[in-house]
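---------- Forwarded message ----------

FYI, see the COMM domain-containing protein 3 record below. Original note from H. follows.
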Amino acid sequence: MELSESVQKGLQSLADPMLFDLKTFSVLIEVAFRSLVSAHADSSVLDQPEFKRIDQMLLKHCHNAATTCILEGVKQNADKSTISSCLEDLRFDAERTDVFYSIYQKYRSDLETLLSSIGRCPPHINDVSWRLEYRIKNGHVHKVNEPSYLISLNVENANNGGSSEDLHFSCTMEQLQDLVGKMKDAAKSLEKATQL
């Protein structure tokens, strides 16, 4: 598994018995897994009594590193040997590696289901409609005298079984010109990519 330098440093801190004893380590790993599979994010997941003596910045860094490692392992369908060798490279002892892997096995199927439910296709634009709006005054009765465009995009979301929805936004003339320019650049890039 390839992990960023920041994630590696967080996991190395987590492996240090001077910073996290085995009980605190086990609780943090369990909390990391639970925070990934819970239906709603809870900001108090790190408010465990075992974490009171640990620096909050270090705790958050280690929690983020653990969740990144967990997701990477599930994404790559990592087995015990892959996870063990990765954690041993990060100075985990055998006992911590076993704790991590046993909790990994406990939550693996839930995480696989969660990751498989994440969509892969961005919405596809079916139709565009627009309307010019000219504002003369704002809510403070000051003269504004500026045009704005109300844009409505009808998009089809392949991740939701092809259901369509409307996205609405407002933009100024400059913002609209910027959007059109970026869309033209994207179309040219796609055209070049298909010609290769």
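H. also flagged this: Residues 94-116 form the longest helix (23 residues).
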